[in-house]
Design brief:
The chain has 697 residues and is an alpha+beta fold. The protein has 4 domains: 89 residues, Ubiquitin-like (UB roll) (Roll); 179 residues, Threonyl-tRNA Synthetase, Chain A, domain 2, CATH 3.30.980.10; 227 residues, Bira Bifunctional Protein, Domain 2 (BirA Bifunctional Protein, domain 2, 2-Layer Sandwich); 120 residues, Rossmann fold (3-Layer(aba) Sandwich), CATH 3.40.50. It is 33% helix and 25% strand. The protein has 20 helices and 35 strands. A hairpin with a 3-residue loop joins strand 12 and strand 13. Helix 3 packs across helix 4, helix 8 crosses helix 16 and helix 13 crosses helix 14. It starts with 6 loop residues before the first strand and ends in a 23-residue tail after the last helix. The N terminus and C terminus are likely disordered.
Length: 697
């Protein structure tokens, strides 16, 4: 009797968890004759007839799994379900609803899109079409200089559905590079990729893999893919964009078609709902609607200006950051916006980072650059005199503006700008201080993020890459210190093996916003390179000279980007302590204006941002406008309020307004709200609101 089929584990994406299966499967007699034996994720062995494939394995494990399977992992390598299984291999089935499975669905759907485009526009050139987070894209060059328009997305979708209905098999082939060049004789972008593969393989030439499906459509691809186009269908094309070939503005500009694909219609609908909500929360739209900032074309792309309301939000963010850093023992420094090229030569930025820097300017026989980073100047502050071990750890902090010439194709509102202000810290410490410093630093970072209401936190530890500088011992010491800091923090983290920069390991802290999106914000990085390049030293207790450890840390990442993340997280309704205007008092008629001003004055005297409105249009319209501006406290005053010293309170998020609320009660409620533990932060323009700075959460 065959044991019941295993379930799919949600704990290990893409792997089959064998529940209730015992090692006794060794003795199964359901596969007479020669067999292939594979080891399943739980260690059990499965016997299959010789020549069995990943699809056969999935079918042997259960009909439900066979229906959900899209690929198989064999000894750590993902391959097509139709590929034969080698005996003795470890194997697990990849299902459609896992991250790995969704990537395969999306990549296969991208192929179908390219096939649809070539049917609709014979002679179209297709470049690359990878799966990306939540979707896929493909880059095209249409014949005769033609271009897609928004209406074409529906045409392409319809043609894709025809191809899916044809249930065409995806068939893998391998060719020598020269055969591949002939196969893609009319596809210059594919030929360029093949030529690169061929050159990298040397005199022997390379081998390239392709996938065919349907009416002779063939695409250059490593794979794997779903078995056939009929396994697809839950997709939507979402937008068009321009993209330079290989991201180089000197190369041809192509058109990029974006889409999304999922394992079920329900998953697709859920994603589209999240997408619509993300559009509603788009910080660029909210920035204009709430009069916070904009990007004047007269200044240039990627260079925002902040209006008074946006400027107030920035001030509150920055003031709060300064107070917290001062409490944590940081010293404030200020550095210029320009530097000579020689500093950037010493730091290595001209060697490693020049393509992201603004071009130089020549003045008085020297070459100057707008600074791309604050760290070289902080190092010069450290080196301005001899340092003693008694001064360590030295924690330098600056809200420093830097300039990076991001390519126009990657600019994205405040999330990616060319002039950005970093809440930048550089910590110099002795070797025996590193563990404690990293642990306390990470706790500080998490505490500040939580005070902005960002509670869903996780991290990624990036470790030593194949090519690195410094000693293995240094790397291991720094990596273990970072790992220990993460363990002590209590937040979940993953390890990105080999993903550290060549000069140092790092921690990246990520937050999830109100609609589940993941944002990378803070970075903590241990640096071996710069102390060596600058010859940094301190005199130890042994009177000998030692090289300090250097830790880079940006908490917000940049003020601009963090501003955008908060704006989208809160859909523009920033926490009351962070709202540019906290209270608006609306008089019902002109004869109530004086009382409205006196009420607003009481809130201002208590340290809150308040104003009295005019009675220049119907009250309902004024209340609606205040709510659209997302003002937390909208207070209305009429005859009864003037007589009784009360207000009508329309509080943000409240279903019904309150009538006859005493002013001192509303004041106390506001003070309590801005001092609420768990993420609200300090309140008034001086920072803390009533009760002083220690009342902040």
């Amino acid at each position: 009797m065959v044991p019941s089929a295993p379930a799919v584990s949600s704990g290990a994406p893409g792997a089959v968890s064998i529940i209730g299966w015992m090692a006794a499967t060794d003795a199964q007699a359901d596969a007479p004759g020669p067999t292939v034996v594979v080891r399943l994720p739980d260690g059990a062995l499965k016997h299959l007839p010789t020549g069995s494939t990943g699809a056969d394995l999935a079918a042997a494990l259960g009909p439900g799994l066979a229906q959900e399977a899209v690929a198989v992992v064999v000894d750590g390598q993902v391959q097509d379900l139709g590929a034969p299984l080698p005996t003795g291999a470890s194997a697990s089935v990849v299902t459609a609803g896992t991250p790995e499975g969704r990537a395969i669905l999306r990549h296969s759907t991208a192929h179908v899109m390219a096939q649809a485009v070539t049917r609709l526009w014979p002679g179209a050139k297709y470049a690359i079409g990878p799966a990306i987070e939540d979707g896929f894209y493909y880059d095209f060059e249409l014949p005769g200089g033609d271009h897609f328009n928004e209406a074409d997305l529906a045409r392409i979708e319809a043609k894709m559905r025809e191809i899916i209905a044809e249930d065409q098999p995806f068939v893998r082939e391998e060719h020598g590079a020269h055969e591949g060049l002939a196969l893609f004789a009319d596809q210059p972008y594919k030929r360029e990729i093949i030529e690169g593969v061929d050159a990298s393989e040397g005199a022997g030439g390379g081998v390239v893999s392709v996938y065919r499906n349907g009416d002779s459509f063939v695409d250059l691809c490593r794979g794997p893919h779903v078995p056939s186009t009929g396994r697809l269908g839950h997709f939507r094309l979402t937008k068009l964009a321009a993209a330079y070939w290989r991201g180089d503005e000197r190369r041809p500009q192509l058109q990029r078609v974006y889409g999304t694909a999922w394992e079920s219609e329900a998953a697709l609908r859920s994603y589209l709902a999240r997408l619509a909500e993300a559009e509603r929360r788009d910080h660029r739209r909210l920035g204009l609607e709430l009069d916070l900032f904009h990007f004047p074309p007269e200044i240039g792309s990627g260079l925002p200006v902040f209006h008074p309301k946006g400027g107030m939000v920035r001030k509150l963010m920055e003031d709060y950051s300064r107070r917290e850093h001062e409490r944590a023992g940081y010293q404030f420094v200020f550095t210029p916006h320009l530097t000579k090229s020689t500093l950037l030569e010493t730091s290595g930025h001209l060697e490693w980072y020049a393509e992201n820097m603004y071009p130089p300017m020549e003045m008085e026989g020297a070459t100057y650059y707008p600074k791309p980073m604050n760290c070289p100047m902080h190092i010069l502050i450290y080196k301005s005199r001899q340092r003693s071990y008694r001064e360590l750890p030295m924690r330098l902090f600056e809200l420093g503006t830097v300039y990076r010439f991001e390519r126009s194709g990657v600019l994205n509102g405040l999330l990616r700008v060319r002039g950005l202000t970093q809440d930048d810290s550089h910590i110099f410490c002795a070797r025996d201080q590193l563990d404690d410093e990293l642990a306390s630093l990470l706790q500080f970072v998490l505490r500040v993020l939580r005070r902005f209401g960002l509670d869903e936190l996780e991290a990624e530890l990036s470790t030593r890459p194949d090519k690195f500088i410094g000693s293995v011992e240094e790397w291991d010491r720094a990596t273990e210190s970072l790992r220990a800091a993460l363990a002590a923090s209590g937040i979940g983290y993953t390890v990105a093996e080999g993903e550290g920069a060549f000069y140092a390991p790092k921690i990246d802290v990520h937050v999830r916003d109100a609609i589940g999106r993941r944002w990378q914000v803070s970075t903590i990085q241990v640096d071996f390179q710069e102390p060596q390049r600058f010859g940094m030293e301190y005199v130890g207790p042994d009177n000998a000279r030692h090289q300090p450890y250097m830790v880079h840390r940006a908490l917000f990442g940049s003020v601009e980007r963090f501003f955008a993340i908060l704006l989208e997280h809160y859909a523009g309704a920033l926490p009351t302590w962070l709202a540019p205007l906290q209270v608006r008092v609306l008089p019902v008629r002109d004869d109530h204006v004086a009382y409205a001003r006196s009420v607003a004055g009481r809130f201002e005297a208590a340290g809150f941002r308040a104003e009295a409105g005019a009675a220049d249009e119907p009250l309902g319209a004024r209340v609606r406008r205040a709510k659209l501006e997302k003002i937390p406290y909208v207070l209305v005053v009429g005859d009864d309020d003037v007589a009784a010293g009360t207000v009508g309170a329309n509080l943000r998020g409240q279903e019904r307004p309150e009538r006859g609320a005493r002013v001192e009660e509303v004041l106390a409620r506001l003070a309590a709200e801005v001092a609420e533990p768990g993420g609200r932060g300090p309140g008034g323009p001086g920072g803390a609101g009533p009760g002083g700075a220690e009342g902040a959460p």
